[in-house]
Structure formats: C-alpha cells, structure tokens
Amino acid sequence: MLRTAGRLLRGIALLSVLALGATACGGPGEDSSVQEPVSAEDIQAALKKGGTVTVWAWEPTLKTVAADFERKYPKVKINLVGERSGDKHYTALSNAISAEKGVPDVAQVEYFALGQYALTKGLTELAAFGADKLAGKYTPGPWNAVSEGEKVYGLPMDSGPMALFYNKRIFDKYKVAVPTTWDEYVEAARKLHSADPKVYIANDAGDAGFTTSMLWQAGSRPYKVDGTKVKIDFADAGARKYTKTWQPLLDEKLLAPIAGWTDDWYKGLGDGTIATLATGAWMPANFVTGVPNASGDWRAAPMPAWTKGDKASAENGGSSLALPALGKNKELAYAFVEYANAGDGVQTRVTQGAFPATTAELQSEEFRNTEFKYFGGQKANEIFADSAANVADDWSYLPFQQYTNSIFNDTVGKAYVSDTKLSEGLKSWQDSSVKYGKEQGFTVE
Questions:
Q1: 69, 70, 75, 78 alpha-carbon torsion, rounded to 10°
Q2: How much is the pTM?
Q3: Are the C-beta atoms of residues 237 and 264 closer than 8 Å to each other?
Q4: What percent of the chain has pLDDT over 90?
Q5: Are residue 147 and residue 170 in the same domain, yes or no?
Q6: Nearest Cα to 217, choosing from 201, 248, 241?
Q7: More confident residue, 340 or 88
Q8: The domain containing residue 433 runs over which residues?
Q9: Nearest to 314, CA basis, from 305, 324, 326, 323
Q10: I need a labelling partner for 70 at 20 to 30 A (CA). Which of 102, 304, 311, 426 fits?
C-alpha cells in the first residue's frame, strides 16, 4: 500500500448517500447485498463462461495481478480503473451507488471506510461465497476490519502494522539511544533538539489516522459499535496515556509542524531534520521513491512501548477489495478478489512491494529474511511481521468514520496551533462526532 495512511478524506459528499435512510441497494423491497450461496462449481462455471469485471482500485500492484488473472482465465477481462484515490474514489463510488448506475463490480475500500458502506447494505456479504472460511489466512487486525461476526464485507488486501522508522545517522551522530518506550522517545526528542535545534524527533501537524493508530496501540478503544448503536469516548485510560505523553512534545515544540506527504516532509526525511517516523509497514517503498538520497541512513525498529516490555502494536492504513451490492458478475468478481487477496496474486503483490495481510507470507522465511538495501541490508520484515502478530483485534471504527476524520483539524487540530490541550481537542472531537451521529439517526452514547 502506498500513501494510504496519509490520505484524509476531505470531502463528505458520500455522507448524503450513506445516511441511515439511504437505500443504496436495489429496488423497492430488494436488498441486493444479500447473496444466495455460491458454490465453487458455480464460480468455476462462471470463469469458464467468461465476462468483464470492472475494478475500481488505485493499488498499483493490481495491474500485474489483473494481467496474470486474465492469462489464467482467458475468457475474463479485468477492466481496472485506477486513476482515482482517496476522496475522489469514494465520492465517485458513492455517487454511482446513489444513482444506481455505473457501479463497479469490485472496489478498493480502506478499512476505516468499510463499515460505512456495510451498514447501509452497499456491499455484498461474502460469506455466501465461502469467504468466512478464509479467516485463518489473515492477521487479526485486517480480518477484524472486514468482518462482523459471521458476516464478511471484503477480503483484506494489505495491512499496516506499525513500526518506528529512525534515521540511524542522526541518532549515532548525537549519541542518542533509539527509544524502546514512549517515555524514552520524549527524552530522545529533547536530546536531539537540544543538540541541534533544526532536528525534530518527528513531524506532526495533526493527523486523524495517526492519532487513532496511537490510541489503538495505547489501549484506548474510543469507538464501540453495535449496528446503529454507537459509543464514543476519548477519555479512557489509553487516551489519557497518549495525551500525557504527546502533550509535552507539543508544549516544548519538539515536533516539526509539517504535514505528511508534502515537499517539506520529504525534504526533512532526506536531510535528517525529521529523525523518526511511526507509521505502517507499507512505508519502505515510499522511502525508496520519495527519499532516495537518504538510502542507508534509515532503519526500522519496533514501536516504542507504552509500558516497558509490552509488545502491543496497531495498524496504520490498509485496504480491502469488496463487491458493491449493485455490481454485476459477482461470481467473477469474487473469483478475482480471492485470487488477488488470498491466492496466487498475494505473492505477486508482495514481490512488487505490497505489505501482505496474510499470515503465510508474513511467516515465511523468504519474506522475513528479505534484506532491504535502503535500510543498510536490514531484515526489516522481521520487525514488521512481529508487529502484525501483536496488533489487538478488538479495534472498531465508526460507521461514519470518514466524516469524523474530516473534522479532526477543526477539533483536535487546534492543539497543534493554539493553547488548546490535546485532551480538550479529543473532547471536542468526541462532542462533534456524537452530535453528527445523532443527527444522522444513530443512537450515540
């Protein structure tokens, strides 16, 4: 996955489609998300007959996967539409669902957005195809993101178990130890910035995805979802742990106020003024293409622990492939999704730099022993795979997470540009999310 975690959805055009009253699933009285059982024989018959499958996805390795699939099944044509990503992708998908016209057969949907479509029956439930039997193939975090009880709304395509990327050259230069706890991280931030005021431990201009990942790792569970019943609480012990640690970094101006994926961000990663980056394991390919001049400087390490010795990690980013309820050729569509995310396509994608959500690849010696030239020959996949195994599987996103993320800068974001404290910003985020949820017809605590 490339840059997925860096995309915050700014537009909320989709929300008019995804309000509780939206039909988005067929004609009057018809629920096209409900799928009659489909046997393996049915799928093979469809592959033999052939047809066209339209796939809306920006993930770059799918181009090769689609070509391989077409060679294996020559009567099937994969129409891969990949020019859209982020907010444009979801706006187009939601507009198509609303109009009941031009809906793709397969769509890439990030984990945080999946529940919003599932709730309004905008997705085909995949257990009818046998997808529920694939649970053991995936690591806990991604599988939890695509399933609800016995229901499955997509197959995990990639994952983002977190790691701490750090500039070894900078840490060595100033003789600062790589932090293993977040308390050590704060001390390292002070030492680095004191040694060179131009050096910051990290950049952080306020990012909803990063914040929720940090809360996840800290043990906070701000969202509880049971259908249309929702609880939002940013004042639990895990959240307090996070704000207590992160607030001094803001107060002492130890974080570069630079947004990710900007020219200044790439420059900081390249020249050493940004010394660490806590993010998903999909990041290495972005280092190679975006910061080539720093090859050999950077390494990967486990995420710092909130309590010394604790191995808890979290996900940052990741996507599924799902079948929109109004899509056609569902047997062929599911066959492609399973091929890409559970079959031969997985290794193809890993070879091209994608980070897998499948345990077999994560546990393989070939994968774990891969040496990263960029990281000085480090076998970084060992760290990433261990992180994936230590992600708690009880995290939930809101069924209106896209809207909630869109108001982050107006709430928590104030802590980055004013005297507002992070805890106050989280409370404001909570209140605004509760208000919106109630307006949309949810029962919110």
A1: 90
A2: 0.89
A3: no
A4: 86
A5: no
A6: 241
A7: 340
A8: 162-314+394-444
A9: 305
A10: 102
